[in-house]
Known about the structure:
With about 220 residues, chain A is mainly α. Chain A has helices at about 5-15, 20-40, 40-65, 70-75, 75-85, 90-115, 120-150, 160-180, 185-215. In chain A, helix 1 (about 5-15) packs across helix 6 (about 90-115) and helix 3 packs antiparallel against helix 6 (about 90-115). Chain A is globular, with a radius of gyration of 18 Å. The two termini of chain A are about 25 Å apart. Chain B has one domain.
Amino acid sequence: MKLPLLRRDLLVAxxxxxxxxxxxxxxTATVAIFPLAxxxxxxxxxxxxxxxxxxxxxxxxxxxxxxxxxxxxxxxxLEQLLLSPRPLILAVLAKAVAHWLACGLxxxxxxxxxxxxxxxxxxxxxxxxxxxxxxxxxxxxxAVFAEAVAAGASRSRFLGGMLALPLCMPAVIFAAAAVAxxxxxAPLLLLAACLSLAITVLPLAAAGALRASAQGI
Amino acid sequence: MGTSxxxxxxxxxxxxxxxxxxxxxxxxxxxxFLLLFIPGIYxxxxxxxxxxxxxxxxxxxxxxxxxxxxxLFIYVNMAxxxxxxxxxxxxxxxxxxxxxxPAGAAFTALTLATxxxxxxxxxxxxxxxxxxxxxxxxLLFIYLGYMALVAxxxxxxxxxxxxxxxLLVGLINIPVIHFSVDWWNTLHQPATIAKFGAPSIDKAMLxxxxxxxxxxxxxxxxxxxxxxxxxxxxxxxxxxxxxxAAS
Amino acid sequence: xxxxxxxxxxxxxxxxxxxxYALSAAVLAGLWLTAxxxxxxxxxxxxxxxxxxx
Lengths: 217, 247, 54
């Protein structure tokens, strides 16, 4: 693992907590909107809870991915990264881990709170806690991939999110179904399969895209 | 023999040769399109007998299904050209992939629209979260994302490479999306909604369907070639052949 | 073949069938015109560029 890079990204995140704390607070507040808008009937909330929580998880990943490479492009550290003799794929993985630590992990910590708000019973909370690490890891890998592909278009905001969104659909489908369904085993395994496919393909593709973007920077 | 095939392909792929061939073949493509389209549309609207279940309403199939085939075919074709452009650094292949996107997105949108119009009399509603329509919708998002990406990267080579990588990852993802949507659909399918009975295809129906699909395919080739010409001209604006072609 | 009126009525499905075909025709025509205009524009652009240089 390329630790210096990961450390640097985490240091940046620690110095500017607003960058990840504000989105997190924003999305926690978004979940609270649903009972206010739809009504507080426990059965209704329980039915929509997996979908709501997974939608919010997806949105928080998509909207926080914007910063992944932007600063590195601006201050030239991306070029440094491309010139360094270490494999670029490790740097890409480090980016994904940093994104997950700032965006996926806090959601897992907050999951019990969200589950309580949405009247989710304990066994479904357990499923949520199992699916969240897998699904948010897929999101983080897709986030890094999409931002790497969009690295040459540093002026267009939300472009990376738009690229990642359709590719995230299978993970959302399986994760939400695992939390909601009576037979969680199949969607859980399918979600794990999504993660293993993502981790095999996406870092390689992201590294290729970053290298291509260097021609135009 | 292998080398001579590659040599021929390589010559074909050189921008000026491609431009000339596209220019010369346009009239033939239009002719071939009409040759397929006129009997196709006659069969679709008049020749084919009404369906025993859906009456005349099923005639939407003759535009809906070819458009759906094209939406997938164009994507796979784009991904193939993307692979060629990455592996052999083919300029023309990259441009053909880019020039295909508008047609692909248009056929995908047409599939969605005609599917929706067909759904109204058959299902009683304009939109049903049926597996095929949902997959098409996600495919449309992928097309739009690709077009937004290549349009917003100012550097041409970066745009081509980034677009090609996105297309190839999308190609891996499309079967996964298709499978997940199918799986999701069986989970949520309300029992009351009857599926489209695939109309028992008889020859009088199959012929116009294939003719329409063929005409759409030729149409796509003509549109792609023309758009690729435009992109090639701009990319090679300062070269000798482009000056001659533009004058 | 039956009368023209019957043909246009499409067994009661006229609105759906004809709107589908009209939409398809519009999409095809729109694509073709866009492609032609795109090519004309880039030819003009390249020609203008080269005139400037001379």
